[in-house]
Amino acid sequence: MNAQIIRLYAVILLLFTGLVIFTSRWSVLEAEELTDNPDNRRVLIQEQQVERGTITSSDGVLIAESLPSGGAGGNPNQRIFERRYPEGSLFGNPIGYSYVEVERSGIELSENDLLAGDRNEFATLIDQVSGSTQEGADITLTLDAEAQRVATQALQAAIDSTPGAVGGGSVVAIEPDTGAVRVMASVPGFDPNAVKDTETFKALTADETNTPLLNRPTQSTYEPGSTMKVVTAAAAIDSGEFETSTTLNANSGVSISGAPLANSGGQDFGTIDMTTALTNSVNTYWAQVGEELGSETYLEYMTRFGFNADPKLDYPDSQMAPSGVYSEGKLLDASTTIDIGRVAIGQERLLATPLQMAQVAGTVANGGTLMEPTFLQEAMDPDGRTIEELDPSPQTEVISDETAAQVTEMMVNVANEGTASGLSTSLGQLAGKTGTAEIDVEASINRPWFIGFAPAEDPQIAIAAMIERCTGCFGGEVAGPIATQVMDSLAGE
Amino acid sequence: MSARNRELFALIPVALLVSAGFAAVFAVRSEEIGTLSLTYGAYFLAVCVATHFFLRIALKNADPYLFPLCAVLAAVGLVMLYRIEESLAVEQATVFLVGLAAFAATITFLRDYHLLERYRYLIALGSIGLLLAPRLPGIGSTVNGAYLAVDLGPLSFQTAELAKIGVVIFLASYLNETRELLSVAARRIMGLTIPPLKHFGPLLVVWGAAMLMLVFIRDLGSSLMFFGAFLSLVYVATNRLSYVLVGLAMFLAGAAFFASSVGHVQDRVDIWTNTFESNPCDLSKAELADGQDCGVGQVRQALFTEAEGGLFGQGIGSTLLKLPGPFAPDCGDDKFPECGSILPAPHTDFIFAVVVADLGIFGACGLIAIYALIGLRGFKTAVMAPDGFSKLLATGLTAVFCLQAFVIIGGVVKLIPLTGVTLPFIS
After folding, report:
1. Which A residues 48-107 touch B at CB under 8 Å?
2. Could you give the CA distance from residue B341 to residue B324 in angstroms, rounded to a whole number?
3. Residue B267 burial (C-beta neighbours within 10 Å; 0-12, 13-18, 19+)
4. Are A421 and A437 in contact, with CB atoms under 8 Å apart?
5. Which residues from chain B sit within 8 angstroms of residue A69, using beta carbons?
6. Which of chain B's residues have a Cβ under 8 Å away from the Cβ of A16?
7. Does any CB of chain A come closer than 8 Å to the CB of residue B343?
8. H helices then E strands: how many in chain A?
9. Across the A/B interface, how many CB contacts are shorter than 8 Å?
10. pLDDT, tens digit, for every residue of A392-440?
């Protein structure tokens, strides 16, 4: 019988091997899928037990903190924390929220590993021995609370006072040489303290008229109108095919892609050079430049400026949209037929986010180098050690230094004697470009834009401001003043 | 070193394990570590050493590794239960002491276990009685739809635990007597070996009993365990694989039939195959609204808990079990772990999931290895036993022990459908 007994044991060992395999399957091999399973509340509950780090603005205003809530206070295993946002709706976008009921969004989501103090296996062992509990890092953002407030109020005032204004608006201000985002305002906003109530959250999600949860600067794409001419000017000079003195016939009625194109108000400008064309935002001139450059070259320059891809911002992918030429929700490339002349004046099917247009201004301001945008100034662990710090990193060498200088000069002209004349900021000499996208010609509903930077000789701030719709208005009179108010606020430090 | 001294020294790491385990739980709870954990270790060591000296006198030639191996399991069980809820560990320690006393009593009063052979039919009848007892009105109680336990006032125990030993004694004795008839006097019809019905009859009765168990106590796990032990013994006694295959086919056929006709078994299989579907056992809307889930939630929670383990685990006492503050249902702190635990039944059916989460894949495999080592020593005892009955008895008891560990761990890690049997020496 002994041989049978040994074989029986072999069978039992085989069964036990099956146990080992399946235990490994759940605890190691497929652990990640199980952790991500929507029915699995373990991670969420454990995160509630962690004291999340605070979020502070660059000027020291507390934006988010975690307070103990519910449960028996004495036992650390029973304590949970809840998020509170002292500034309310001012920072609903772009900070987002973090609640067990509605999960996370915005910076609360993208910086979650820092805020929750994500632990690795090694740290866990140390923590076990020392008996310490998991705590998150405190982070300081590059956002300026005072300028954010000015931007939000200016946007709201512009929307309220402009005849026929409905919808929202955006302001994005960045430091050209570091990529630091100083202001990101989205109107209308929401109070992140309120979304933990799931009914309120549902109502906010369902509000398709105001879309308050949308972070417009990164998520909404709009026709950029004439602000796109900055990209066209940069491409024209940098490609070597044009100079600022190159003259073209800029009368209305020039044929672009087989269809006649008119200037604003049907004006005829005769034969003018590039500087004049930018100062007066002459559509026919820039459309011809676009056609001359061709789709391939033009789209190449757009891509260098950051179009055709999500911005390289530490922000949730689901809350960022790429800018570019769209057809049925998809980005087009040079292989498709595109009316590139009209793209070059911000029309056709070109759509851009306010962040993208701020980056266009920032690139010119920074001598032609696009910097990766960032929100994070500093992250400090609970022991007071700095674990991350703003480290400016160039994204692309878009245009040469000389090209940037020439485009800057033309943009100064726009601010001094062109469509943006009358605008000024305490930062110093303004360089800018207005835009007025006509979205309903019959009802004369426009989408006003302003992009620019200051001071022109040593740019500190690059900015994009826009509101979604107003009747019979222009970029220079509606969007421009919002931008300069925000710049003034940032200059006042 | 003599065998007995090896046993004595093997107990020292066991005692250290208990001390370290308790110390870890204290550390996690940020309590005073002090000398209390060492005290627990010392108590444990004292009890084990006393048992050891008893073995030294009463059973000089017993296997020197079995007792320390079982002590390791008991130690792990005590620490895990203490980690879940202190009072459970106190209960477990009491049961451990009672178990050791019963162990000593068996050795003292049953010096010649061949006595048992004389009473085999009585034992068989008694075992069947025990199996059916939970179905009796008044003392029976159901656990998750299965009739497993008997409630006698303060005492509640799973009668199958006792019955399985009785059944093994009967089978060992019966097969030892008839094994030659079963294997030699068989006729071959159409290539199949058919044993004489006269001798095979009682075995058919055992198959019937296993099936009846499915129907009456509705417990797939126990019947799997019993039938597995039965087939193991038939194989070892007759060396005919064909019997095992026919037996297995009959069991599967029976199980398949009952799976489709007995709701409880059907549910278990559905949960096993479609764990992550929204409504695997086709509950009606009213039942869903009532919060019923036919037990699929606990299997999911077990897997979620295991996913926390990783390679080294979260550390003893660190895995989330007790729901904090606002997440806890309104049933009070003292009801834990029956209520307020994110993983249902962490102290009984799902204790292995807690082991995986706390100790990781390494700890869990260590535990499985200990069961495999106990199996090794048990089968070695069988191989070295002098006569047929002893061999079969040792084989049967070891097989039942290993299969029980397999059935519950296999259920918790979703290798087989989950059934509620206890994890030997731990839960």
Report:
1. 48-49, 69-72, 76-80
2. 9
3. buried
4. no
5. 325-326
6. 368, 371-372, 402, 406
7. no
8. 17, 23
9. 169
10. 999 999 999 999 999 999 999 999 998 888 888 999 999 999 999 888 8
Domain boundary residue, one of A79, A103, A131: A131
Q: What is the pLDDT of residues B374-385, one digit of tens each?
A: 999 999 999 998
CA A287 – CA A341 distance, rounded (Å):
4
Q: B356: nearest CA in chain A?
A: A27
Q: Please state the pTM of the whole predicted model.
A: 0.68
Task: Report the residue of chain A nearest B352, measured CA to CA.
Answer: A23
Q: Are residues A98 and A172 in the same domain?
A: no
Whether B375 sits inside 8 A of A9 (CB atoms) is yes
ipTM over 0.95: no
* Mean pLDDT, residues B5-11 taken together: 84
- Burial status of residue A315 (CB atoms within 10 A of its CB: 0-12, 13-18, 19 or more): buried
Domain coverage including residue A264: 145-206+213-491
- Quote the number of domains for chain A: 2
Structure tokens at A359: 């980056």
- pLDDT per residue as tens digits for the range B296-310: 888 888 899 888 888
What pLDDT does B374 receive? Answer: 94
* A404 within some domain: yes
CB contact under 8 A, B375 and A34: no
Q: Do A78 and B324 touch (CB under 8 A)?
A: yes
Question: In which band, very low, low, confident or very high, does the pLDDT at A140 lie, cut at 50, 70 and 90?
Answer: very high
Question: Tell me: the pLDDT tens digits for A74-100?
Answer: 455 567 888 999 999 999 999 999 887
Domain shared by A250 and A112, yes or no: no
- Chain B nearest-CA residue for A77: B324
B249 contacts: CB under 8 Å, gap ≥ 6: none
Tell me: do A432 and A410 sit in the same domain. yes
Contacts of B257 (CB under 8 A, 6+ apart): none
